[in-house]
Write a structure and sequence with these properties.
alpha+beta; two-stranded antiparallel ribbon; two-stranded parallel ribbon; 6 helices; 4 strands
Length: 133
Amino acid sequence: MLLNGQERKELSGGFRLTTNNRMEILAAIKGLEELKKSCEVTLFSDSKYLVRAMEEGWAIRWKANGWRRNKKGEKALNPDLWERMLAVCGLHQVVFKWVRGHSGDTENERCDYLANQAARGSNLSIDEEYESA
């Protein structure tokens, strides 16, 4: 969901097989990709994984380490999406903020509703990266 003053745009979609983390990252990417010019953005998410990976620089470090999470060589998950996220964030000034899920936050509840409706859809696409892994 994109909000700018009184302007509002709702987006939703999903895949037949995927993970919640992949959908949280993809939702943020899709929202940022909708912006037509460079913007200052506050991106709210109830995904600590997404917010911490971006705000604490995890995704940047994973990329710099060849998509490895640590010195033990553990693979970072979702490198395809993190690559897209880093690219789209390079076009904007984005601050990520965590919001507690299912806590009555009106906009977060609306996003959850849209996500659940999309997940129940009959025309879900294939998440090529997830299903081929």
